[in-house]
C-alpha cells in the first residue's frame, strides 16, 4: 500500500483525520458536559434563592417551612436535597427529601461564596452546592449559614452518554465521507499519471512511439522529457545499427580476402602456420560478429516491436535447410501463427538462429521447435535427436569460448550470445533431455503478452 501514491496519501490523511476527529469528539463532549453542568449549577442557584425567599431570621433563630414550592424537596429519595447548617455544621433546617441524608460535609462557604463539588452516594453521583448567607438583625450582622443543596447527576450522565454515542456515529460518518471524497479527488487528480504509465507501457509493447495527448501543466516537463528520451533512444539505436553495419562491412571484406588467400595457399601447401592463421581469421570474424550483435542486443530500449514468430521461424528454418542440406534435417514447427514476441526482431532472430543451428549441427535427423504461452510467459523450446548434453556439462556450454567438442566448426560464442540476450530481457535458458533423445533448449520470456 505504501508503494502507491494514493496509498501513502490516504494513509497519512486517515491518520491525521483520526487524530483530528478524536480531538474534536473529546472537545465537543467536554463542551456538552460543561454546558450541562453549568445549567445544573444555575438550577441549584435558583433553588437556593427560592429557599431564601421563604426563610426568616428572628431573635437569633432561623425559621423555614417544612414544605417548599419545589415538589422534589417534599418527596423522600427524590434526588434533590437541601439543608441549612451553621458554622459548626449543625443542621438548622432540612428538607423532607433530605431526612436521613448527610449533606453538610467538611467544606464551608463564606458569605456570598458558592462552592461546588461532586460526591458519591452509593453507586450514584451527585452535584453538591454550598452558598454562604447571613441575615442582619437590628442593624447588626448575624451569623453566617450555609445553604447546602445536592442533586443527582444521573440524568446528566445519561444525556452525556447518549450525546457521546450520537457524536461517535456522526463523526465516523463524517470521517468516512471525507475519506471517500478525498479518495475520489486523489484518483481524479492522479489520473494523468496513470495515463503516462499506460502510454509508456504502450510504447514498450510497440503500440505507439511517443506520449500523446494533453497533460496538466505540472506534468508537461515530464512528458516532454520522456518523449525526448524515447526519440533520443531511437536515434541512438539507429546510429548503432548503421555504425555496426558499416563496421561489419568494412572488416568482413578484408577478412574475406585474407581467408581466400589462405585457402589458395593451403591448396598449394598445407602447413601448421597456415592452419593457425586461418583459425585466427575465423576467430576474428566470429568475434567481430559476436561483439556487434551483442551491442545490438544491449541497446534495446523503450521502443519495442511486436514480432510474429511463425514467419521469422520459417525464415530461419529455410536458411538452415540450405546450410545443412547434406544432412537432410527435418525441422518441425509447432506454434500458433498468431503468437507474437514483444521485443527486438534482431534479438529474437539471433536467439532462434543460434539454438536451431546448434540443434541442426548436433542432431541426427530431426529438430522440433515449439512455441506456446504458459503462465503469462512465452516458452520456446528447441529439441534435437543428437547425443545430448550431460547434466554436469550443461552450465559449461553457455560460457563464452567453452565447447564440448572440437570436431564441429565454431568458437563457442553462439550459446553465450544467446545467454547475454536472454539476460537483457530477464529471460531464462534451461537445458533438458529431449523427448527425441538429444538435448532440449528451453527459453522462457516473461513480461510477454498474448496477441
How is this structure best described in words?
The structure is a single chain. The protein is α+β, with helices and mostly antiparallel strands and 451 residues long. It has three domains: 156 residues, Beta-Lactamase (2-Layer Sandwich); 95 residues; 147 residues, Histidine kinase-like ATPase, C-terminal domain (Heat Shock Protein 90, 2-Layer Sandwich). It is built from eight helices and 14 strands. It has a five-stranded antiparallel β-sheet with strand order 4-3-7-6-5. About 1% of the residues have low confidence.
How is this structure best summarized?
With 451 residues, the chain is an alpha+beta fold. The protein has three domains: 156 residues, Beta-Lactamase, CATH 3.30.450; 95 residues; 147 residues, Heat Shock Protein 90 (2-Layer Sandwich), CATH 3.30.565.
Features:
five-stranded mixed beta sheet, Heat Shock Protein 90, Beta-Lactamase, 8 helices, 3 domains, rod-shaped, alpha+beta, about 450 residues
CATH class descriptor name of the largest domain: Alpha Beta
User: What is the overall silhouette?
Assistant: rod-shaped
Report the total helices. 8
Helix coverage percent of residues? 40-55%
Which sequence of strands runs across the widest sheet?
A: 4-3-7-6-5
- Taking pLDDT < 50 over at least 5 consecutive residues as the criterion, the unreliable ranges are 406-411
CATH architecture of the largest domain: 2-Layer Sandwich
Overall residue-averaged pLDDT value: 82
Counted beta strands: 14
Strand proportion: 15-25%
What structural class do the secondary elements suggest?
alpha+beta
Order of helices and strands: HEEEEEEEHHHHEHEEHEEHEE
Integer count of domains:
3
Q: Report on the biggest sheet.
A: 5 strands, antiparallel
Give Rg in angstroms. 49 Å
Q: What is CATH's topology name of the largest domain?
A: Beta-Lactamase
Distance between the termini: 31 Å
Amino acid at each position: 500500500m505504501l508503494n502507491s501514491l494514493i496509498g501513502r496519501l490516504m494513509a497519512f490523511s486517515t491518520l491525521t483525520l483520526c487524530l483530528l476527529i478524536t480531538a474534536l469528539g473529546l472537545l465537543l463532549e467536554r463542551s456538552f458536559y460543561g454546558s450541562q453542568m453549568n445549567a445544573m449549577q444555575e438550577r441549584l442557584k435558583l433553588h437556593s434563592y427560592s429557599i431564601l425567599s421563604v426563610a426568616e431570621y428572628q431573635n437569633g433563630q432561623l425559621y423555614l417551612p417544612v414544605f417548599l414550592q419545589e415538589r422534589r424537596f417534599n418527596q423522600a429519595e427524590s434526588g434533590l436535597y437541601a439543608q441549612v447548617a451553621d458554622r459548626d455544621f449543625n443542621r438548622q433546617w432540612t428538607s423532607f427529601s433530605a431526612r436521613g441524608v448527610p449533606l453538610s460535609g467538611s467544606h464551608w462557604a463564606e458569605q456570598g461564596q458558592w462552592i461546588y463539588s461532586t460526591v458519591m452516594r452509593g453507586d450514584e453521583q451527585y452535584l453538591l452546592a454550598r452558598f454562604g448567607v447571613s441575615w442582619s438583625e437590628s442593624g447588626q450582622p448575624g451569623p453566617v449559614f450555609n445553604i447546602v443543596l445536592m442533586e443527582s447527576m444521573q440524568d446528566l450522565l445519561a444525556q452525556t452518554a447518549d450525546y457521546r454515542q450520537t457524536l461517535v456515529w456522526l463523526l465516523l460518518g463524517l470521517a468516512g465521507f471525507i475519506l471517500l471524497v478525498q479518495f475520489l479527488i486523489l484518483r481524479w487528480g492522479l489520473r494523468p499519471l496513470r495515463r503516462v504509465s499506460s502510454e509508456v507501457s504502450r510504447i514498450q509493447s510497440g503500440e505507439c512511439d511517443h506520449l500523446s495527448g494533453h497533460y496538466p501543466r505540472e506534468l508537461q516537463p515530464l512528458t516532454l522529457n520522456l518523449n525526448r528520451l524515447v526519440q533520443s533512444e531511437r536515434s541512438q539505436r539507429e546510429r548503432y545499427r548503421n555504425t555496426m553495419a558499416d563496421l561489419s562491412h568494412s572488416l568482413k571484406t578484408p577478412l574475406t580476402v585474407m581467408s581466400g588467400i589462405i585457402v589458395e595457399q593451403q591448396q598449394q601447401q598445407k602447413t601448421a602456420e597456415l592452419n593457425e592463421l586461418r583459425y585466427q581469421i575465423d576467430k576474428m570474424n566470429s568475434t567481430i560478429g559476436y561483439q556487434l550483435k551483442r551491442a545490438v542486443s544491449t541497446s534495446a530500449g523503450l521502443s519495442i516491436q511486436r514480432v510474429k514468430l511463425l514467419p521469422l521461424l520459417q525464415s530461419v528454418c529455410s536458411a538452415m535447410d540450405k546450410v545443412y542440406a547434406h544432412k537432410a534435417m527435418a525441422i518441425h514447427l509447432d506454434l500458433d501463427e498468431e503468437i507474437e514476441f514483444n521485443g527486438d526482431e534482431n534479438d529474437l532472430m539471433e536467439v532462434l538462429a543460434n539454438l536451431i543451428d546448434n540443434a541442426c549441427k548436433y542432431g541426427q535427423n530431426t529438430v522440433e521447435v515449439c512455441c506456446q504461452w504458459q503462465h503469462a510467459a512465452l516458452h520456446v523450446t528447441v529439441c534435437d535427436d543428437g547425443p545430448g548434453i550431460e547434466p554436469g556439462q550443461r552450465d559449461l556450454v553457455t560460457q563464452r569460448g567453452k565447447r564440448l567438442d572440437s570436431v564441429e566448426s565454431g568458437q563457442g560464442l553462439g550459446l553465450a550470445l544467446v545467454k547475454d540476450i536472454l539476460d537483457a530481457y530477464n529471460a531464462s535458458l534451461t537445458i533438458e533431455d529431449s523427448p527425441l533423445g538429444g538435448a532440449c533448449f528451453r527459453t522462457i520470456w516473461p513480461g510477454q503478452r498474448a496477441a
